[in-house]
Specification:
314 residues; Nucleotidyltransferase, domain 5; 5-stranded mixed beta sheet; globular; binds zinc ion
């Protein structure tokens, strides 16, 4: 049994930590993503930071738009490190350890399976809600990768024909409505057309965040409630399609936006009833991941390298 270095590369923050095989954090730190201009710079930074913090036998990295087959980040819409970034090559060279790179949403699904509430589940999905929207899926007890390792891009499934412009080049993607910027844009639109007062008007538009909007909704602010309801409805629409097609027992929500826990869950559940096939109503459920507060991205990356090293040993 050994320790692992887990790295969770997000659009806003990069978290990393030294974690034991059973999921206990021995050391943890993070850095804003915008401070790192290249993946090489990140590898140098983490190398120096963890140097005296403990030993580890392998490195797991979760990142957006990772193709697990090539171990590269490919065309990540929310990152500026180049079109194709050979993360595995860069970190292997710097650390001289076995490295495994996995799509951040697949890492979240692995984390849920190893350390979360999905231990006994064979058919579930984990949706990550943050700067972008991703998804990892377990079907018949297998992580679903797809032919090119790109399965699960629910954030870029289109929920509105001719809808909002997305960073991927298409229009109307789920992400443009329920990820960080999407929620803020909905609030701005509703504020522009609302005749009543809203406490959101007291916040300069450039400082609006999903956290502020959910906070205002908890205070019964009518505009904020409309925004949160709309997020719940859009999510329920996509989740119901997933459940109807795949017969999932649970969809877990994780990532920054899901820190809004019960309020978000209630709104999704309210609309889900209307979309879901009636015979799935009491068979499929939505849960907020209990790993959310414990840095599930890092745990997922650790689960990925842990299982990869085990496969290599057998
Ligand atoms: Zn898109």
């Amino acid at each position: 049994m050994g320790n692992y270095l887990g790295i969770d590369i997000g659009g806003t923050n990069i978290g990393f930590g030294i974690v034991s095989e059973n999921g206990a954090f021995l050391y943890e730190n993070s850095i804003p993503t915008e401070n790192m201009k290249t993946a090489e710079e990140l590898a140098d930074y983490i190398f120096e930071d963890v140097k005296k913090k403990g030993e580890f036998i392998g490195i797991g990295i979760g990142a957006p738009s990772v193709n697990q087959n090539t171990q590269c980040i490919e065309f990540a819409p929310n990152m500026n490190w180049g079109d194709v970034v050979d993360l595995n090559g860069i970190f292997t060279k710097k650390f001289n350890r076995t490295v495994f790179v996995i799509n951040d949403a697949n890492a979240a699904a692995l984390g849920e399976k190893f350390y979360g509430e999905a231990k006994e589940m064979s058919n579930f999905a984990v949706i990550t809600l943050g700067t972008g929207v991703g998804m990892g899926m377990y079907i018949n007890d297998q992580l679903v990768l797809g032919k090119n390792g790109l399965a699960g891009e629910i954030g870029h499934s289109i929920i509105q024909r001719e809808g909002r412009e997305c960073k991927c080049g298409n229009h109307g993607c789920l992400e443009t409505y329920v990820a960080k910027d999407g929620i803020v844009n909905t609030a701005k639109e509703k504020l522009e057309f609302s005749s009543g007062s809203s406490i959101l008007n007291l916040i300069p538009p450039s400082d609006l965040t999903p956290t502020e909007i959910f906070k205002a909704a908890r205070k019964e602010d009518p505009v904020a409630l409309e925004v949160v309801d709309s997020v719940g409805k859009d999510l329920a629409f996509s989740i119901s399609n997933l459940m109807n097609i795949l017969d999932l027992e649970c969809v877990f929500l994780t990532g920054g936006i899901s820190n809004n826990g019960n309020l978000l869950k209630r709104k999704v559940e309210k609309h889900l009833k209307g979309y879901l096939l009636p015979n799935l109503h009491d068979k499929s459920q939505v849960r907020i991941s209990i790993l959310n507060q414990q840095n599930s991205g890092i745990l997922g990356a650790v689960a990925a390298i842990n299982s990869q090293l085990k496969i290599a040993l057998t």
